[in-house]
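cache lookup: miss for this entity combination. No prior model stored, computing from scratch. Input as submitted by user K.M.:
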Amino acid sequence: MNRFNLLPVLFAALILGLWELFVRILAVPVFILPPPSCILTVALVRAPQILPHAAITLTEILLGIGLALCTAIPLAIIMFARPSLEKAFAPFLVASQAIPVFALAPLLVVWLGYGIASKVFMAWIIIFFPICISLLEGFKSCDKEYRVLFRLMGAPFFKTLILLYWPWALPRFFAGLKVGVTVATIGAVIGEWVGAQQGLGFLMIQSNARLQVDLVFAAILWLTAMGLVLWWLVGVLEKKIIKWK
Amino acid sequence: MLKVSCVTKYFKDQKIFSNLDLTVDRGRFHVIVGPSGCGKSTLFDGLTGVTPLDGGSISWNHESLLNLRYHAAYMQQKDMLLPWFSLLNNALLPAKTSGQNIKNAKEQAQSLFARLGLKGYESHYAKQVSGGMRQRCALVRTLMFNRELILLDEPLSALDAITRRSLQSLLLLLQTEFGKTILMITHDIEEALVLADEIYLFSKKPMSLSRHYVLDSPKPRKFNDPILLNIKADVLDKLEGDLMNEQV
């Protein structure tokens, strides 16, 4: 492990160590702030209880990512191909991010029910924007000289898209996807907070009401791990696909 | 025959060139020389339709055209190879984009790779080969346009002197072996003298023709040919004179 990989581990160990020390020295009750060692123990010992909830949340996140990819990519292409449409859609895209998701969550539960659909939709709202905008900006960043070359080769738009614009925009697309998958957990969990019968958000609300703060933190730990794994997977996929960098 | 008559280009109120005439007979190698920023590349942009011309007419083989977009292959100073494709796939781009038969195009590209000294490098990527090899690959791609007329915009200017010498002979092949009609821009007067059948010397903005040389001596030529040296001295005198006038 090189020095750069070691630094975040050392930093995390320092923060957790200070936290553990602070809680132990001041004898903070577990229902107020449990020590990290206790959270880790609960996260592992009660994994059989947590994991089914985590699986639900992960499903919502993955469906949200899938839905976001299916909508953000075509919309980015359309807006790139027709700048007038970009001007028409841009205010709505920005507005979709300006509205607090907390405000939308109860409405979505009313409209789409207590099931998985409202959570997937929440995740979609959050993931869609970074993917769409970063891909669009990636397309736009293509050098004029390459565009000219393709124009002189007589390439129609779709072929230019496949052979030039798409590979050109891939690094930005993956940057947007990394942001998207990391914040996707927020959308799903907020949806579960407002109204659900399963999922990590539901488990958090239930545990909090029973003062099982260690279980709340354990759920947060699993959620964080989920976000980190998704972020890492996107990074691996990026390295596999963008071999020329 | 390429005939460019009375072409004019303005950028806002600034006249870049006006009433410019050029004629390139089929199978001939014509070179445009002129000071930096005089508008040579703008002329090519106008000819290829990258930017619209403000006046004049263009015809290729007696067919009147708006521009040469679908009639000329174009090679720029930079190799413009795409890093995500192998050299062979870069060379195949004109075929892929214009819907040609890829199998036939692949055979053609492989034969050109062998002819231009790139055999064995088909699956390499641009970052894995030298600048000279990248430019050879760009040359193959230019030939893969399968167009008789070729426009070259300082294609060798980014290369070192030795690589440039070796590639100059390959540029000659375009004319002698592949029968292409070539119009090339260069800053290098010696390069123009070695390659050209005719040289157009343009002056600073607004760009206008200040000299036209016809070179009859057979190719390949040597730099120390007295006739070429005389032309070189004349071109340099003219360019230096223009520069002095500008400074005054």
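stored under new cache key. The mean pLDDT of chain B is 90.
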